[in-house]
């Protein structure tokens, strides 16, 4: 159970957090606490005393006398109910307090009757638990003033001990933190091995030298302590007193930044970025300096390469036939290279340089997908984006493109720019190259070049001045073609370049070059060339032919991409894909075959289980029905014999015996329907206390004299909406099970209570949150082990000997409560008894008053002319119902099937009420006949009588106004009363046509 409270100053989470600070839960016994509870037990003359702490879900005892346990669940905790009390709380008799009268510790073993407790409260006012004493005898007089004083004093001593534990725990924590500070400080300073951290005094002498300084500069800490930092400055900086300048700037501005050359121990130089900050004492006076250095030699060298990379990016933007874009996220402006016009026809005057224009050119079917995907990267934390979509050309046609981009973010992670390239998918997909750089200053330019060269790894560039045959190539291109780099810079002949091309590829290359020279614009072609090692390699040439205004070609600019590795990867990918496809086909076939085998085995197992269940059912039901039929037939046989002999005095006994056996057979049928959860229930607002009181004597006779019955009805119990007859049957079944679990006698307690289940508890019990009435049946019998509890509600499961039960009792109760919107829970331990708890939904309103069933002789008489149509395929039923109706003055008309009954209804004869079975032969059931009759007799009243689970037809909220149901078998006087009630009731208010 949860500890409920309405305190304005604290929550349960606050209270549990405070309890955790004391570090006392689950600790061993301690002499100080044990002495205090023994003193409380002696001073207050109580056999039981405890220091009780209320944890989440349990009550834990730091010290106890007379209990013999260290903890118990909160469901049974008396102290948990008292945490909101101020000061001590005394309960002279727990059995007279309705909060605790149903507590197992009170009404069962150990039978607690008296309680006195003092709340253990922190200085902040948070309750942790209680110091309490208990007695198995009530104490009407409570506590004396001396005892109250002793309880309060001892409670303060308990809190003093707890506060001492809290102080010691906090002290130990603080000492551990202090001891760790120095170690952590040393670890923190030494952990960054790529940062040199040097501490000096005001004269620049080294006082601290971390492992990063040793790693970067080369000197150990022992070698540098007491030395000045001039040791790792260059001679030029020492000559200009650069160290002193940095110290003065750091003292004036708080820090001094620099980027310059420094010296390693071996006198080699490295480029470093550094910062110097002053160290000050508590008075704010400077006591020294800290200088932090980082080796930036590679980044410094990378800066020199950025200009070359930028120039290569410019050439690529001009030469490639891919549309390269640069999207400024702060202004939503997009710049494109010339390939946007060459590849897709968009002239600069037609292009609105915004991100919105670009997205608008995407095919409508692809637009939302690409917009969401690209913004998921921009607005998220990713960097790379790739997408395939259809891009609109200037003539309205769409091109299939592969687009990818890279997000550049500032130091706070916000998107600043996004750079990318849009490729026509007729070209080979790019192989993404990666340029690694970690320096923030160089990062943006490196990424721009990387993504601008998105077509692949560029290995060279060329410039062909047309119409001459002279090529100018860079060093990389010369190497690619196996040519002399020196000749490449001054110009090569076309024949020298073509000579390196594979013979099989020369015709195709020549045709492609001639075609692009004739038309101008972009160029892309893949072929093989021979390099210096004599082997042929696959390359891809991408370029652009520029024409003069008169249409003559001016030059042919281009780049060369190495695609050797890409082609090998594509071949490997195709091979692996084929193998995976074959493997997948094999696995799918094996899975299908295995699945089919499992399904066949499962079906065989299910059929075997069905046959076993049917065997158990038929065995148990046959046993019960044979007993009942023996009683019925025997009584009728003796009845006939005595009538033939003229001995009429003994007839009443035989009639009563046959009637009783028939009613028990009907009850057995109802149990079967309840087990299947398909019985036709008649839920009514019911006062459960009154129902239990009415059957108390029946339960007492059923359980016998060796079992003591105790009924505890809750005051103010809510009504519940339930079938009272089924609830009586369920309680009687539970009482019989409890009796069988106490072969040597014991105590049976039937009690009721109101409860409100919140969402968490309702979810644990598989119920809907809300208000419920609880009916508990508790015995002191043998109890049930967990495996029996797990199967208790299974159909046909029983622990009784063969022939003494069908295993339907608890299944019936479970089906009835679930069908009523409630739940059943079992609480049991072997040797400690069992509690069966029924949760039934609360009914808001008044319970129905108890009415005595009129006898058939006193049943109301019919008015003149009232006629009832009886339709049932069982002649005996028709005969009995018709005889009852005629005895009461009704005119009765009979029919044996639905078609005959519908014919009578069509005849125009007066019919005040249709009484029909639901299950009728010859194709038309009772519901279908009633619906058909309502078409021409809209005010026809109908009473369905059913002997089995027909609620799929007439129940589940599907009955129309004026339709009612009774379950066979029924008392004839009940039938007579129901018929009179329906005929005399208000007219039928039928729904408008089409409203069903």
Percent strand equals 15-25%
- The CATH class of the largest domain is Alpha Beta
The CATH superfamily label of the largest domain reads Histidine kinase-like ATPase, C-terminal domain
Uncertain spans, ≥5 residues at pLDDT below 50? 1-6, 306-310, 428-456, 802-806, 852-857, 949-953, 991-996
The major beta sheet can be summarized as: 6 strands, antiparallel
What does this structure look like?
The protein has six domains: 12-170, Beta-Lactamase, CATH 3.30.450; 196-295, 2-Layer Sandwich (Beta-Lactamase); 329-452, Beta-Lactamase, CATH 3.30.450.20; 458-562, Beta-Lactamase; 676-841, Histidine kinase-like ATPase, C-terminal domain (Heat Shock Protein 90), CATH 3.30.565; 867-984, Response regulator (Rossmann fold, 3-Layer(aba) Sandwich). The protein has 29 helices and 34 strands. Helix 21 (724-740) packs antiparallel against helix 24 (809-819). It is flat, with a radius of gyration of 48 Å. Residues 620-844 form the Histidine kinase domain.
Give a quick rundown of the structure.
This protein is an alpha+beta fold.
